[in-house]
Design goal:
It is a single chain. The chain has 245 residues and is of the alpha/beta class. The protein is built from 9 helices and 7 strands, in the order E-E-H-E-H-E-H-E-H-H-H-E-H-E-H-H. Helix content is 41%, strand content 16%. Strands 1-3-2-4-5-6-7 form a 7-stranded mixed sheet, sandwiched between helices. Strand 6, helix 7 and strand 7 form a beta-alpha-beta unit.
């Protein structure tokens, strides 16, 4: 089980910032493999404190918590990279900051949860059923742990994080900040078709896909890094064009 709260610097690089928000059951260290493939960027990751979760806390509370913990990091040029649950939290963070969000701090919604989709059906399952359901959909990462270890050490955090979406899920709305969508070609939980539909609402700057299922951030860190680098290149090229104009 994870400990927190934590703000973890995974890589110290140059001026470009990558800020990572974890998936349900994840932690700051879930992005260690990704950081290894981006040696020249500043890579920071965050996780909620132990016990912070549940419908009584909700998405707004977690977004406010991250905004406070990352106050010194939320500056551009850079990317806020939220994966799965982290994508919904990143979206809400931008909404809460509204006009104060830096325009050179782009937001990457990676494998976001289905909009308006509650998690109550998963939370109603017992631990063995939840393990089976989330393993089948790819929501629970394959860390090579036995079922017994997963039930004891992974399921509590996963269950608590799933409760954050409560009975309403998350409500996607267009943002003033620049948004990019990222997904996995073989993702069963956040399918390419679902991302295409979400793009109609969010009107992102880009909509990219990498090989892999829902946990491509763990399983395909090099490809994920390549996609983030491409987004970062667009950001810096746009900034240079603006200065030239």
């Amino acid at each position: 089980m994870r400990a927190g709260p934590e703000r973890v610097v995974l890589r110290e690089g140059h001026a470009f910032n990558l800020i990572c928000l974890p998936f349900a059951g994840g932690s700051a260290r879930s992005f260690v493999r990704l950081a290894r493939h981006i040696p020249d960027w500043n890579v920071t990751a965050v996780q909620p404190p132990t016990g912070f979760a549940g419908a009584e806390s909700g998405l707004d509370a977690l977004a406010h918590f991250y905004l406070g913990l990352l106050a010194a990091d939320l500056r551009g040029p850079g990317l806020v990279f939220g994966h799965s649950l982290g994508a919904a939290v990143a979206h809400r963070m931008v909404q809460l900051r509204a006009d104060e969000w830096p325009q050179n701090l782009h937001v990457v919604l990676s494998a976001p949860p289905a909009p308006h989709s509650a998690t109550g059906h998963l939370l109603a399952l017992d631990d063995k059923e939840l393990f089976a359901a989330t393993t089948a959909s790819g929501i629970l990462p394959d860390l090579g742990a036995s079922e017994d270890l997963a039930l004891r050490f992974l399921l509590p955090d996963l269950r608590a994080d799933l409760a954050i979406l409560g009975g309403r899920g998350w409500q996607p709305h267009p943002l003033r900040a620049p948004v990019h969508l990222l997904g996995g070609h073989q993702d069963l939980a956040s399918t390419p078709a679902a991302l295409a539909e979400l793009a109609q609402c969010l009107q992102p700057r880009s909509n990219r896909f990498v090989e892999g299922g829902h946990m491509y951030v763990l399983e395909q860190p090099a490809h994920t890094a390549d996609a983030l680098r491409a987004i970062g290149a667009e950001l810096t090229a746009g900034a240079a064009t603006g200065r030239a104009g």
